[in-house]
Design goal:
single chain, alpha/beta, 4 helices, about 25% strand
Length: about 260
């Protein structure tokens, strides 16, 4: 490991081989830095935080800060970050709360651009991109391979399903289905994340079927609950559509991001 002489590292921190801690960094009590982690400079890892292997954290990020919650009284809570993430300048990730799960969890292979914020008790999946100043309120749940555009905000307790994209400046006050494309203030659903599906290797025929199912669900005849049941029966062979159906049913009491016409 290499630790710059200006860095301050708490005696209780566990620092693995291959860690590089740059100038003016602060590593607090209960911090665990896995093999190959790099703190570039001026990084604060406040306390009770684990950072996965090969994650790189850039200057002025504050990781593992106290939850921004009026009820927090210093109880032991944690932040867990996976491997191979890039966390850019001024990003802030908060620990959990006793009122929630007690832990904030961030997956692996993510890119968190300048000023990105992950609030207390959030669960963030793998391969997530949060563009500049994208913000997650407390308890938000973000699926794998989600793209959150610059300056968008996901309301506390909000859910964004796997593979979805949220446009810049969007105010996400309702749940976004897996593979959905949502934007606007407040955000509304504008189809599927076609660019993301193509990048994942979906061919034209597969995309056509997914679009057909989407239209049947959101533009078909009858009330929404009836359309949901029909789509569930008609597209049982499409795992992506079954994931959307399960996502909607799991959040049955939560507001759902819908197309403007709904």
């Amino acid at each position: 490991m290499t630790i710059h002489p200006t860095a301050v590292v708490d005696a209780s921190a566990r620092i693995a081989d291959g860690v590089a801690i740059g100038p003016w960094c602060i590593v607090g009590p209960g911090v665990i830095l896995a093999d190959g982690v790099t703190l570039v400079s001026h990084v604060v890892v406040q306390q009770d935080t684990s950072v996965g292997a090969r994650t790189v954290i850039h200057p002025f990020a504050v990781i593992g800060g106290d939850p921004q919650h009026n009820g927090y009284r210093g109880e032991p809570v944690r932040l867990e970050i996976g491997a191979d993430n890039v966390i850019r300048e001024h990003a802030t990730f908060n620990r959990g709360t006793p009122q929630g799960t007690g832990v904030t969890r961030v997956g692996s292979n993510g890119l968190f651009m300048t000023g990105a914020h992950v609030g207390h008790d959030c669960v963030v999946g793998d391969h997530v991109v949060m563009a500049n100043n994208a913000t997650l309120g407390g308890h938000a749940r973000i699926g794998d391979k989600v793209f959150l555009g610059g300056l968008c905000a996901v309301h506390q307790n909000g859910r964004v399903g796997q593979g979805a994209i949220v446009g810049g400046l969007a105010a996400v006050t309702r749940d976004v289905i897996p593979y959905g494309s949502a934007w606007g203030n407040h955000a509304s659903l504008h189809g599927l994340n076609l660019i993301g599906l193509k990048r994942k290797g979906y061919g034209k025929d597969a995309v056509r079927r997914l679009l057909a199912a989407y239209r049947d669900l959101f533009e078909g005849a009858g009330v929404f609950a009836e359309r949901l049941s029909r789509v569930e029966a008609a597209y049982i062979d499409l795992p992506e559509i079954m994931e959307i159906v399960a996502f909607i049913r799991d959040g049955a009491k939560r507001p759902l991001c819908l197309p403007d016409a709904q």
